[in-house]
Amino acid sequence: MSVLLSDDRGWLLDACSFINEGFRRCYSVNKGHFRCYFKKQYFDIQKPHIVSKCRSDSMISAVAHTESHVDGDARMELKTRRKRKRKRSELNQGELDAEEYHKKVRLLVLEGTRSLLESGHHCGYLTEDLHTVPTKQMPVHECQLAALCDMAKQLLKTENSEAPHVQAVNGHADSDAHLDLFSCLTENPDDCAREVTLMGETYFLPPRSRFLLSDITCLQPLIRNGDKYDLIVLDPPWENKSVKRSSRYSFLPSSQLKKLPVPLLSAAGCVVVTWVTNRPRHLRFVKEELYPHWGVKLLAEWLWVKVTRKGEVVFPLDSPHKKPYEVLLLGRFCASSDSTTRSEVCEIPDQRLIISIPSALHSQKPALSAVLKPYIRPKAKCLEMFARSLQPDWTSWGNEVIKFQHHSYFTVESVECAHDTFTEMTDADQQVDTRVTDKSACL
């Protein structure tokens, strides 16, 4: 299950277990039925990426802190910030704006995480007693999907109006080799995950998942399909200095985001969620330009707080360089016929925290399905844009959309053990569900 605990401040998530839920039952033409797991080593963040000189700077744990400790830490951290070599007057406007934003959310992070992390320790999810041996750096598959998109874009300059809107995989390498992944949606229509061979590589596709492999210039197949979505989550490749210096990752200028056909893809009352970096100019752009341009009304601002397995934030909270949180801006697509939607869903609350152990893989965000479920209608259609992985019952789009479905990120369980393990895990999950229900507050 994804949501381990919740209260009126937010949620504690287990991102890895959510991925595994979709792969309890897998099928392969060659292997038959089996089960696979996303390698837990990628979520085995045992230590902060940067350790603060003052340990309390990097740990927000109710077990270790009381109200008086928080007040003392705040005074100590303020004193530390005053000792920076660069004076405030020497900071540029962007840095000044970032500092002001941090002041606004700092107390929310400190106080909002306390009860959830304390409960996480009590239920045994966050623990000081690490039973696993520290792992070496895991190998990362060299993804060529973006390059293939560029090649396909040159070859498919004219749109084929007779192309099917949706095509299904069947798991046979010969027939799947003829699938056009760039010009129409590809789906696994089955109720179990599928092992498939696409472009010579092996991937695991979750049940009832769809995807389009393309970049921002080739979105017509997504529009042509005709679906209107009740939830759209975007994780844009924001422009920043480190990305510009690196040739490994592409970025998209903010002005290009306005060209995304979000209004065409949105049903009445669609919830639009955008991951935003901590750069104030990106936040202002989404709030003041992008959402108004799309006809989306901003309703809430949430923070994703990244912690280690012990409950320590991955960067010191007051670090001038990296913050242990990222921002999500949530809004609704405004349409004249959205009254039917409003009666079926809850209002989106402001200032909530999502706390989880992050993936060691670049830009692998936690899935938001369980967290956002109360705010969208039942049986909602969901879309993720700029995706790098798939989810059951979702449509996903991006130029690396199946990157994290590559077989190298998974551990396959033997066919003989799969049925017994499935039964054991179901029983264990039911026990966890009961424990979490007793300790969590419904929002």
From TrEMBL:
Species annotation: Pangasianodon hypophthalmus
Sequence similarity: Belongs to the MT-A70-like family.
Q: What is this protein called?
A: Methyltransferase-like protein 4
Q: Which InterPro entries match?
A: DNA_methylase_N6_adenine_CS, MT-A70-like
**GO BP: any one term:** methylation
Could you tell me the superkingdom of the organism this chain comes from?
Answer: Eukaryota
Q: Name one GO cellular component term.
A: nucleus
- Pfam annotation, one family: MT-A70
Which residues does UniProt assign to the signal peptide? Answer: none
Traced from the root, the source organism's taxonomic lineage reads: Eukaryota, Metazoa, Chordata, Craniata, Vertebrata
Cite the PANTHER family for this sequence: N(6)-ADENINE-SPECIFIC METHYLTRANSFERASE METTL4, N6-ADENOSINE-METHYLTRANSFERASE
> What GO molecular function terms would the record report?
nucleic acid binding; RNA methyltransferase activity; site-specific DNA-methyltransferase (adenine-specific) activity
